[in-house]
Amino acid sequence: MTGNAITWLNGDLIPAADARIDPADRGLLLADGLFETLLARHGMIINLDRHITRLTEGAAILGIPLPLSATGLRAAASETLAANGLHDADRASLRITLTRGPAGRGLALPATPQPTLIITATQAPPAPQGLSVMTSSVRKVRTSPASALKTLNYTDHVIARREADTAGADEALMLTEQGGIACATIGNVFVMSGKRLLTPPDDGAIRAGITRADVLTLAPDHGLTVDEAPLSIEALRSADDIFLTNSLWGICPVTELDGTRRQTTDATKKLAQALDDAWASLIC
């Protein structure tokens, strides 16, 4: 974010440099909160209602009251885009962050939570044309109740990304407890084998992304058989193609895995174009 950035904080649009949260905020101290990252194109926030639904459902599970209705969240997100001069931008990134707010020391929940809600917006760079990816040693714990939620606790992901940085890779793939592939640090994983599209199941070890769901919906229309099943490292390496998905990139091909160069198939290119077209249709 630039020095001129404007942040939406608890109902007010203020310069980001002046934004302050309480030092006792549980989001800061305990990662007690949730977030959503969204793509906006020419003022249209892609899949906004689905992101709001996921945030609302996660907040209900954690028992964090949302200070705005869905209508209020939609309006606040658009106001933040406009305040940052991004309402007509080709690509802008928004982040909605919700915490339980300030509380006393320790883990005891506040009797009357005063949640903190923050919305930021910035110019989004073009999606990468390809990514070098390494297999991380980090394992996702399927039985953790937080695994499937988009919480502020990204420690596992940060450690995996640090491993990628050390290895000179763009991204890292995290493993399941059984040693299979779970997800990337900021996206879901797909492999293409012939006309079969395989992705790890939504069994608690992954955060099943909104873009992942879009791809699963589009794939059958392009002659692909979808299979949500455990993905071994061997299956990953022998696949025709690998790609990652998230809400900012859409579909991004993996062009290098653990130091081995890989090609991108026509099937993946066509699916990526179909997803881009589907998102573009929302702008009209």
UniProtKB/TrEMBL annotation:
Family annotation (Pfam families): Aminotran_4
InterPro entries (alphabetical): Aminotrans_IV, Aminotransferase-like, BCAT-like_C, BCAT-like_N, Class-IV_PLP-Dep_Aminotrnsfr
GO molecular function terms attached to this record: branched-chain-amino-acid transaminase activity
GO process terms (BP): amino acid biosynthetic process; branched-chain amino acid biosynthetic process
Its EC number(s): 2.6.1.42
Pathway: Amino-acid biosynthesis; L-leucine biosynthesis; L-leucine from 3-methyl-2-oxobutanoate: step 4/4; Amino-acid biosynthesis; L-isoleucine biosynthesis; L-isoleucine from 2-oxobutanoate: step 4/4; Amino-acid biosynthesis; L-valine biosynthesis; L-valine from pyruvate: step 4/4
The protein's required cofactors: pyridoxal 5'-phosphate
Top-level taxon in the UniProt lineage: Bacteria
Swiss-Prot/TrEMBL catalytic activity: L-valine + 2-oxoglutarate = 3-methyl-2-oxobutanoate + L-glutamate; L-isoleucine + 2-oxoglutarate = (S)-3-methyl-2-oxopentanoate + L-glutamate; L-leucine + 2-oxoglutarate = 4-methyl-2-oxopentanoate + L-glutamate
Alphabetical UniProt keywords: Amino-acid biosynthesis, Branched-chain amino acid biosynthesis, Pyridoxal phosphate
UniProt keyword annotation of Coiled coil present: no
Family recorded in the similarity comment: Belongs to the class-IV pyridoxal-phosphate-dependent aminotransferase family.
Role, per record: Acts on leucine, isoleucine and valine.
PANTHER family in the record: AMINO-ACID AMINOTRANSFERASE, AMINODEOXYCHORISMATE LYASE
Record protein name field: Probable branched-chain-amino-acid aminotransferase
